[in-house]
Amino acid sequence: MPSLADVRDWTNRIGDLGYTAVRTNALTAGVGRQMESAGYVVLQDLVLLEHTTPRNIRSHEASAAAPRTTHSLDSNQLTAASAVDLAAFGTQWGLSATAIADACKATPRYRLRGIGEPLAGYAVSGRDGSQGFLQRLSVAPDHQRRGLGRALVVDSLVWMARWRVQRVLVNTALDNDAALSLYQGLGFRRVGDHLRVYERALP
Ligand SMILES: CC(C)(COP(=O)(O)OP(=O)(O)OC[C@H]1O[C@@H](n2cnc3c(N)ncnc32)[C@H](O)[C@@H]1OP(=O)(O)O)[C@@H](O)C(=O)NCCC(=O)NCCS
What we know:
The chain contains seven helices and eight strands. By secondary structure, the chain is of the alpha+beta class. It has a domain at 53-165: 3-Layer(aba) Sandwich (Aminopeptidase). Helix 4 crosses helix 5 (97-104). The model has no long low-confidence stretch (mean pLDDT 93). It binds coenzyme A. Residues 88-89, 137-139, 144-150, 172, 176-179, 181-182, 185 line the site of coenzyme A.
C-alpha cells in the first residue's frame, strides 16, 4: 500500500504536469483511507463481482430468447465506440477513444467486440492467465433492453472459457441496477467489500 507521502508526492507531480484534477481507479478501503487523508473525496461506490464458471456459459447463451451476434472492432472504430460509451455513461464517466484503447492495453490479452450496425454497443474484455476482466460494457440508450448487453457479456465469457480462464471480475456502481441484474443473471456473484473511486481538484 502506498504511504501518505507517496500519495502526496504523486498528486503534486500530476499537478506539476498541468492537470487540474486527478481521479483514481477503483480502490479498496485501506488505500481509500490514505487518499482521504491526502484530500481526495469519494466520487463513486463500486461493487466487485466474480464469475467462477465461464465454461458453463453456453447454456445461458442457448436459453437467451434472442441471441445476437457480436463482431470484432478494430482501432479505427474506437471513435464510434466512444460515442456509444458517452451516450451510455454520460459525460462524467464516458470514455474517449484514447481511454478505450488504454483499457484494451490493461491486460496482456484483450477482446474488443461490438454489436449492431451502426454500432449500438461494445465490450472490452481482458485476460491475464487464468484471471479475466470485463473491463467495459456499454449499450447506447436507444438500443437498451433488447438483449445486446447480455449478448456482449456472453461473448466475453465464452472467449474467457476458450482460454481456460477460471475467474472473471467486473465492477460496477453500487446503484447500477441494470448492470447488477445483467451480471447476476449470467452467474456473477458479489465478492469482497465495496470499492471506491476518488477525486481531488488540483490548484
Ligand atoms: C447495463 C447495460 C450494458 C445493459 O445493456 P442492455 O442491452 O440494455 O441489457 P439487456 O437488454 O441485454 O438486458 C439483460 C438483462 O439485464 C437486466 N437489465 C437491463 N437493463 C435493465 C434495467 N434498466 N433495469 C433493470 N434490469 C435491467 C435485466 O435483467 C435484463 O434481462 P431481461 O431483459 O430479461 O429482464 C446498459 O444498460 C448500459 O449500457 N448502461 C450504461 C453503462 C453501464 O452501466 N455499463 C455497465 C457498467 S459496468
